[in-house]
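Kindly inspect this today.
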Amino acid sequence: MELTIYQIDAFTNKLFGGNPAAVIPLQKWLDTDLMQTIAMENNLSETVYFIPGTAPDADYNIRWFTPAVEVNLCGHATLATAYVLFNILGHNKPVISFNSKSGILTVTKNGDMLTMDFPSWKPTGLDAVPSFLSEVLGNVTISGVFQHRDVLVLLKDEAAVKNCTPDFTLMKRYFDKMIITAPGDAVDFVSRFFAPASGIDEDPVTGSAHSQLIPFWSERLGKNKLNALQLSARGGELWCEQMNEERVLISGQCVFYMKGEISV
């Protein structure tokens, strides 16, 4: 069986920036174990598969896999999939709708900018903060701890986020996914994202994390439109908007890297 694979750098306007995703179009789902094995072989933070939609309100169905597990939401791979559909496979409407494990997700094209309509996951403060959390993050000073899907750790400033040196072995023992964040120097906020339990020590740019970060910072800063940077080695820029209590908008650009063929 031959499968076409695209590799797209998401949340960047330059090659080798942002977060690379493998995008694999299908006519019907492969066996889940095979999709997981291909994702492991690709060894990118995400491999995304999509098929023609099976519901009236969805153009396509979409699923996302890290090298280790299937996840319920992934932003950069959704952005990359929309890029492939709009720019390579000839999707001729201005909006694409995806049916996913997190409900219906839409992506709108406006020039080079792609905007995702994602769920808003407002994190709440944790009363009991693990005593070893600071050690997990390299003995940083912690300003607050919150959680929705992922643990969100507020640090003092951008330098603290940039210079954080996590102990991934210790993190994997106690936490599934973790975001660290702080006010930005030249943008509204900065962040980094870690998921060693899912096979990704640090993810370059994480759209799904912004489902938590946008409502968190929108409330703290008293504004609905936000500009964000994810401070990984590759780096990524996101334009964000808190639409209402239920939905956020996450915008970014993509760059084509590769088209290939998989034989399985």
Observations:
- The chain has two domains: 2-119+250-263, 124-242.
